[in-house]
Design goal:
By secondary structure, this protein is α+β, with helices and mostly antiparallel strands. 50% of the residues lie in helices and 12% in strands. It has helices spanning 11-15, 55-61, 68-73, 79-87, 98-106, 113-127, 144-148, 152-156, 163-177, 188-196, 203-213, 224-234, 243-254, 258-272, 277-284; strands at 2-5, 24-26, 29-34, 37-44, 47-51, 130-133, 136-139. The protein is globular, with a radius of gyration of 19 Å. The protein binds a DNA duplex through helix 6, helix 9, helix 11 and helix 12.
DNA sequence: CTCCAGGGATGAT
DNA sequence: ATCATCCATGGA
């Protein structure tokens, strides 16, 4: 077990903020896969205690090198943003493996976070590789080649529905004639355009992949939650707000770390606007 | 039962 | 160029 300094970091909130969908609680910490490795990680105060992954990999994955103070200081100074910033202290953007992130968000279309977790688990258990970590079994995310070698029927059996065709088509693209790593050199607009050429990838999924896998901290994914926040907090009583106008506003208004701002607004909205089920049950008990 | 979910592709205006 | 509709699935 190694110890990694992790100031200004909240592991639980970061893993519960709808960026990654496969980590599971294990005792006081979590177990999951970082790329090809099974990892157990636990936070105690300002440090992470890690089994199974090398320090550099874990540090990079959890974005511990991001200058969080600087990033938060760059947020616009409005009330919605300040509330979210206070609520999300220690939330960081994770650096995910590119294909894993792309595939997961292709599967995220019209799905709630819990459903995405189920899909991720089924894909891993069926097509991934098992790894042992401290008496527990963790599955890696299947490679694009492995998914490309499967059938739409098999993918549908993982509860993908209409997303199966898209995932299969994109996996085949990557297995044969596209290297996601080589897109890293592209500027934001070109990278987004190339990602949007893939089946099942539109502006929203492309922005998620740019933010969570390509370190494009400016990318601002707009989903139903964020759209609600934008309409309520930034455009009360404005009609004629199409997706393009909203996107144009966010890019200018939230600036260089817009992706971080977006994640804070998203997580804050999701945790507060919807009453947590178990809290309601606790009140009724 | 009805409604909705980290949307995208397609065809109609 | 914008808008409406359909697409599967599962949980509340």
């Amino acid at each position: 077990m190694t110890k990694i300094p992790a100031p200004d970091f909240d592991l639980t909130m970061t893993l519960d903020s709808g960026q990654v969908f496969h980590w599971e609680r294990s005792g006081e910490g979590f177990i999951g896969a970082i790329g090809d490795r099974a990892v157990q990680v636990e936070q105690r105060g300002d440090a992470l205690f890690v089994d199974g992954g090398d320090d550099q990999l874990v540090l990079s994955y959890f974005g511990l090198d991001h200058p969080l103070g600087e990033i938060c200081a760059s947020f616009p100074n409005d009330s919605a943003m300040c509330e979210a910033k206070k609520f999300c202290r220690g939330l960081r953007i994770i650096r995910q493996p590119k294909w894993e992130c792309l595939a997961t968000f292709i599967c995220s279309s019209m799905k709630q976070v819990e459903h995405i977790r189920q899909i991720s688990r089924k894909l891993r258990e069926r097509f991934g590789d098992g790894r042992q970590i401290k008496d527990q079994l963790v599955y890696t995310f299947p490679t694009a080649e492995r998914i490309a070698a499967s059938s739409e029927k098999e993918l549908r059996e993982c509860a993908l529905g209409y997303r199966a065709k898209n995932l299969l088509a994109t996996a085949r693209q990557l297995a044969f004639d596209l290297d996601l790593e080589k897109l890293s050199i592209l500027a934001d607009a070109d990278l987004r355009a190339r990602l949007c050429e893939l089946a099942g990838v539109g502006a929203k999924v492309a922005n998620c992949v740019m933010l969570f896998a390509y370190e494009r901290l400016r990318a601002f994914p707009i989903d139903v939650w964020i759209e609600r926040v934008l309409r309520e907090k930034y455009f009360p009583r404005a009609r004629k707000l199409n997706a393009a106008r909203l996107q144009a506003f966010t890019e200018k208004y939230f600036g260089t770390h817009g992706g971080y701002a977006q994640q804070y607004l998203f997580h804050h909205a999701r945790m507060t606007k919807r009453p947590k089920r178990d809290k309601v049950l606790a009140l009724n008990a």
